[in-house]
Design a protein that fits this description.
The model is unreliable at 109-128 (pLDDT under 50). The protein has helices spanning 2-11, 17-37, 42-58, 64-80, 82-105, 111-121, 123-132, 137-161, 164-183, 185-211, 216-222, 224-227, 230-245, 249-264. It has one domain (2-264). It is globular. It contains 14 helices and no strands. 85% of the residues lie in helices and 0% in strands. By secondary structure, the chain is mostly helical.
């Protein structure tokens, strides 16, 4: 996986800057909103995150316009089934975070071996990239998808190489996150918005740093023991802040009326 990170960082210098800067800036700004206040409009926030998630996955299989259309349809369905969709989103995000932490705990000893095939498969593309100079927006986007797909394949292979007990931990996390998310709606909204916000902030910052010629992925990999705990810590801070300060006006009015009614009695 580290080799794929290095090839990715070495190839992005030829990308059109807008391919990295625009989504990176949007990711950071949207992430800050979701992290600190997404639960104020929980239904819209969850639908927006599902739209981004489905559209991003769809781009690996269909063109950009079609994938966005599929994402919009998915977000409409999500808004109709808020309870289950919010729980499912929390399950997906929690599973991802726990998977990253488990891989770090096990030392990612299998990562380099598991990622060699996908790293080798992108070597020719990387060399051609270096000879052709700066790529246009379309070519940059296509190569970005190729590298992200290589990272995805490496992650899948790392997951398959994990011991059964760690796979059980990830599976149990997914199940209980879904269960709790469907039952405790307010807590689930805060957790899902905070988690999505933190991941978008980190992803957006990585893209913007890559556009400046930095190598953030290699740095994160080298300092994973220090950076990995920061993600759940930020999620915890965002969740607590939203539970304390981001209750909806209707809820506050209801609590106020109940308090006044008790005083009148």
């Amino acid at each position: 996986m580290l080799e794929v990170f290095r090839q990715f960082e070495q190839s992005v210098h030829a990308y059109d800057t807008s391919v990295l800067v625009v989504p990176g800036l949007v990711g950071v700004l949207l992430g800050i909103f979701l992290w600190l206040g997404g639960s104020l409009v929980a239904r819209i926030s969850v639908a927006l995150v599902w739209l981004l998630l489905v559209a991003a996955i769809g781009m690996f299989y269909v063109n950009a316009v079609t994938s966005v259309g599929i994402g919009v349809m998915a977000s409409i369905v999500v808004m109709l089934f808020k309870r289950f969709s919010a729980g499912a989103l929390t399950s997906v995000l929690a599973t991802f975070v726990v998977f990253v932490m488990v891989c770090q705990y096990t030392g990612l000893s299998h990562a380099a071996q598991a990622s060699e095939p996908s790293a080798q498969s992108s070597t020719q593309t990387s060399s051609a990239l270096g000879q052709s100079g700066t790529l246009g927006v379309s070519d940059s986007f296509e190569h970005l998808k190729l590298m992200l797909y290589s990272l995805y394949r490496s992650a899948v292979q790392v997951g398959q190489a994990l011991d059964a007990k760690y796979q059980v931990v990830v599976g149990v996390t997914a199940f209980f996150a879904l269960l709790i998310g469907c039952v405790l709606q307010r807590l689930n909204a805060a957790v899902s918005c905070a988690t999505a916000g933190v991941l978008l902030i980190w992803g957006g910052m990585i893209l913007m740093l890559l556009s400046k010629g930095a190598m953030p992925l290699t740095g994160l990999h080298a300092g994973a023991a220090m950076y990995t705990p920061i993600i759940p810590a930020m999620i915890g801070v965002g969740t607590l802040e939203q539970l304390l300060f981001c209750s909806r006006p209707a809820s506050r009015d209801k609590d106020k009326k109940e308090t006044q009614g008790k005083k009148a009695k």
